[in-house]
Specification:
This protein is of the alpha+beta class. 21% of the residues lie in helices and 30% in strands. It is built from 2 helices and 6 strands. Helix 2 links the parallel strand 4 and strand 5.
């Protein structure tokens, strides 16, 4: 349980293409990790992976996994995901990729359509995860 005196720990977003983006990649408060939205960009760049919703979804989920693991958590500890789709018609295609990364018990989840995502992405996802004690 988070004490009243505990402060959030902010983990800066690593520079991308030499640019410092204006948000933290994650914030830890107590044993809860809040991970910023991830899109399907090629590592270290501001360029989307080619091919649309399926490869973008896979890359965004791989990046999400990397961020979680870097901060002591993992996909199995995700309690809530929020999915933003550029086209809700691609929901089924996203779900196929999502099932490659998440198994039972599945996290709570919301999915919604957006009128536009950063860099023209087809999908963005964010999550909240539990960080178990070390050891």
């Amino acid at each position: 349980m988070t004490s009243m005196s505990e402060k959030p720990r902010h983990f800066p977003m690593p520079p991308v293409d030499g640019v410092r983006l204006p948000f933290s990649e994650a914030v830890l408060l107590g044993d809860t990790l809040y991970v910023s939205g991830q899109i399907g960009i090629q590592p270290g760049t501001m360029k989307l992976v080619p091919g649309g919703i399926v490869p973008e979804s896979r890359r965004a989920l791989e990046t999400m996994r990397e961020v979680l693991e870097r901060h002591g958590s993992g996909l199995r500890h995700v309690v809530k995901c929020t999915i933003f789709l550029a086209d809700i018609g691609e929901w089924a295609q996203f779900n196929e990729v999502y099932r490659e990364f998440f198994t039972d018990p599945l996290p709570a989840r919301s999915a919604l359509a957006s009128s536009g995502l950063a860099l023209g992405a087809r999908v963005e996802l964010e999550c909240v995860a539990w960080v178990p004690p070390p050891g």
